[in-house]
Structures are given as structure tokens and as C-alpha cells.
Amino acid sequence: MATPVIQGSGTTTALLTATGIEKRFGGVRALQDVDFRVEPGEIVGLVGPNGSGKSTLLACLSRAHDVDAGTIRFDDRDITRTRAKVMARRGMTRTFQNVKVFPELTVRENALLARQWDGVKPWQLLAAADPATGERVDHLLELTEMTRLAGEFAGNLSGGQKRLLELVMALVSKPRLVLLDEASSGVNPTLIESLKGYIRLLHEQEGVSFVIVEHNIGFIFSLASRIVVLDGGRVLADGSPDDIRHNQEVIDAYLGA
Which InterPro entries match (predicted)? Predict the structure, then answer.
């Protein structure tokens, strides 16, 4: 697992840097002067109370939401105004709090659709799948032990299996950074342990960095090398899991006694 990096202390070029991020919805300030950083090869947990701005920050980082102030850089390029679909081609993908799969397509077809091509229309994606893409999909299905479900309609999967399919879809294009929103939500305890193992394996084998928004504290504390805590749209704390566990402000605002 990557060595923990405390915000502001890193000397390497960050994979992702967000500085001074502000986001408003009408008169509500969802994010206020947020600084956020992901080093190459890090697994960063993003936690906080309900309404603290976690999913909003993820949407801003992935460019699904525009920011009202601040800058975002990915792979040393300014992406503050870059469209979300372009980011997938540049190496940043994400999953969603509410699982997004095509229920009328098979597991393998869903994974093939996740491949990002320039100049290929959505209705051409399956027909355009090249052998290398098929091999990539089959490799990921095998890695996540979903090969036996390759021909199953996605609508027939359990909630946990759909989460795994979303993870496969996010990884088909060989991204450098994957943003996971509530990865363990709706997943049974046995499958949660498998999901943790798959994330660790992909992190180790392919060097994928992850940002994981999560309410399951045990899940995120066992995976992340660094944890960022949001509260009221601001960064309350940023440090190693051990630092966060013993941070009195975090205990008072989020973890409890």
C-alpha cells in the first residue's frame, strides 16, 4: 500500500490537485475553499457526515459539475473546464452512488460499452469492440470472479454484483484514477470483503489510484493510505487513518466517541 502523504507535504507531482474549490447550489455553499490532492498510486478515502459535500466534490473532480471557483489539475493539465466525457479518455473514471448499468444488456455487453473511443457513436460501441478490448473485458471479469455471469442480463444481478460490474466498467479503459462513490452500499458483508480484495489487487497490479467516498468506516480505514474528512463543505482533516482516528475534531463531528 502507498505511503501516506499528508496534504501539503508531498514533493512529487500529484496525479490530481484541486485548489480553492467552491460550489454553490442557489444560495447554498456546498463546497467552500476545498483543497484536495491525490498522489500517483494512492488510495484516498473521502468521508464525512451526510451533506458534508463528498459526492459534490467527486462530481466536481470528475467534471460532472462545474465549479464556481478554484482550479483542478489532472496529470499536470488544467481540467477545470474540461467536459466529463473527455476525462474518461484522459484516464479518470468514476462510479455512482446509485448504480448505473444497462439492465437489458448482458454483463459483458455493459463492460464493452464502457470502453472510451474517439469518434465512435454510442450505438456503435458494441460493434466497434476490437479484440484487445474484448480481452481486457474478459480479464477484468475473471479477476472479479464474474466470468460465469458474462452472459447474464445486468438487470438480474444482485446489488453487490452490480457494484462489481460498475467497477469493471470503470476499469476497462485502463484509467490512472478511479473515483468510487459509496462502493460498498447495498453490498453484503461477504462481497464487501471480496470488493476490498479486488481494489487492492488492481491497485497493486495496475497502479490505479482510487478516491473512495464511503460511509462504511471499516471498509475505508482498511483500504486507504490517506483519509480526507469533509464537514459543512470544508476540509476538516487530512491524514493517515491513524491520525484521523485520533483527531478530536473528527471524533466530535463524525466518528463519535
Answer: AAA+_ATPase, ABC_AA/LPS_Transport, ABC_transporter-like_ATP-bd, ABC_transporter-like_CS, BCA_ABC_TP_C, P-loop_NTPase
**Alpha-carbon torsion (174, 225, 71, 15), positive or negative:** negative
**Cα distances (angstroms) measured from residue 108 to each of 129, 143, 153, 180:** 11, 14, 9, 21
Asked if residue 208 lies in contact with residue 178, where contact means CB atoms within 8 angstroms, the answer is: yes
d(Cα 65, Cα 23) in Å, to the nearest integer? 9
CATH 3.30.1320.10 fits 16-100+175-255, yes or no: no
Q: What is the DSSP string of 56-121?
A: HHHHHHTTSS--SEEEEEETTEE-TT--HHHHHHHTEEE--SS----TTSBHHHHHHHT---TT--
Averaged pLDDT for residues 19-34: 94
Give the lowest-confidence range in 37-51, 103-117, 221-235: 103-117
Average pLDDT over residues 248-253: 88
Q: Rounded to the nearest 5 degrees, what angle is found at the Cα of 165, between the Cα atoms of 44 and 199?
A: 30
Helix (H, G, I), strand (E, B) or coil at 160: helix
To the nearest whole percent, how much of the chain has pLDDT over 90? 57
Closest C-alpha among 2, 45, 36 to residue 17: 36
Q: What is the pLDDT of residues 67-94, one digit of tens each?
A: 999 999 999 899 999 988 788 888 899 8
> Where on the phi/psi map is residue 125: left (φ > 0), alpha (ψ -120 to 50), or beta?
alpha
- The pTM assigned to this predicted structure is 0.86
Name the residue with cell 487530512: 238
Question: Would you say residue 107 has pLDDT above 80?
Answer: yes
CA 11/CA 32 separation, integer angstroms: 25
